[in-house]
Amino acid sequence: MTDGALSVKERFRLGRDRRKQIRRLEHSAWDVKLRKEDPLKLMARSMQGRVPHLIKMKYGLMAASPFGYFRGAVPVMAYDLSRMGHTGIVSQLCGDAHVRNLGAFAAPDGRLVFDINDFDETIRGPFEWDVKRMAASLVLAGRTANVKGADCRDAAAVFAEQYRSMMTQFAQMTVLDVVRYQVHRLKMVETVEGILRAAERATPMHTLLALTEPKGVMGKSSKQNKKKAPENQLKGERIFKTIKPSLKRVTGEIAEKVITALGPYASTLQPERRHFLAQYRPLDVAFKVVGTGSVGLRDYCVYMQGNGENDPLFLQVKEEVESGYAPYLESGAKRKQHQGHRVVDGERAMQLQSDPFLGWTTMDGRDYLVRQLNDHKASIQLEGITATGLMEYAGVCGELLARGHARSGDACVLAGYLGRSSRFDEAVVAFAETYADQTEADWKELVGWLKRTRGQIVSSK
């Protein structure tokens, strides 16, 4: 979006000039009268093509709480944001920026890293759309945890201030320093330190015991299975468990298609990682239900084994459809890109380090992302979070989102627009509270509709 020939001062000036397009305080504005579409119909359209019997489950997860609704309603917020003015300052968007889409996972070198880790909705777009969504999520998360309203507002303010101040710092760094920037204070943030502790336990061997069982034990009582020593449980051939409603072993033609799709996937990896993958052999396949926004999309797990029983690898083969923001940002030709490839590009653009087995494939004309499943992954749990914990976590959210945008956009232009005053922060906080209120109203509408119709799908016409 910027000309590489421009000087740093010119890029700062370019950012400041965007205030003529939309003043910083104008970001506070949200009015439901801007809507020309029914949120329920927007959601119904997003359900098209999904596994029919899982659509009711997704609506149920969204109906559980306003925050649950927010997680599943990206199509609604994408539409709402498109009805407002924006800066036109483009970076890679996470697209589904919210507090539970940051988490820990294993880097290629085996160390645990903490970063944005969900990119199903990623796309290039106005940077402030991510900022507004994350700020609103902090308010809703705080309300879910019964944090006082003033403290929820303060958490959103901490996030916005940290985002702005970090962008000022990134604009003063060398390009390579921005690329390499790491957040070193994570273990001093109690909520993040707890996530890292949980991630340490989420090893491939832990996943092996949680998701698979020795072949031939099906039908035996869980008490009988538990009597076996852990080392004996790992002996012999293992297959996926069926854990209703989230995990179901698949065999036959479907399993064969999933395994076959790993061939084209391997070609999307770097050569040395392709070599590593070739040393694993697939043993079993399962269908898995994940997340909230992704429920209803096809998601498979492949259990693979490398150097013996103590070397499991679990790959997730996850269907990807176009970003909920695509209708408002991209031309028809651009929207025809491979959606798994889109997610990989967005993830690599924003993350400091990415999953070494990150790639994409196609199956039955549908696009899929491929990555490791549960390799030291963990995210925040909202139950019991305190006001202090929420505010500390909000600061980390601001720092990591700023880093992702600085890596994939132009920190000088962004810093020029944001400036050094708190005008943008104040506007984002006001928007976050107003939009959290709107989300609660939309959630009540969904709950009411589900009660009236018993979960029948709303017509998208």
From TrEMBL:
Superkingdom, natural source: Bacteria
UniProt xrefs under InterPro entries: DUF2252 (IPR018721)
Family matches, as Pfam families: DUF2252 (PF10009)
Record protein name field: DUF2252 domain-containing protein
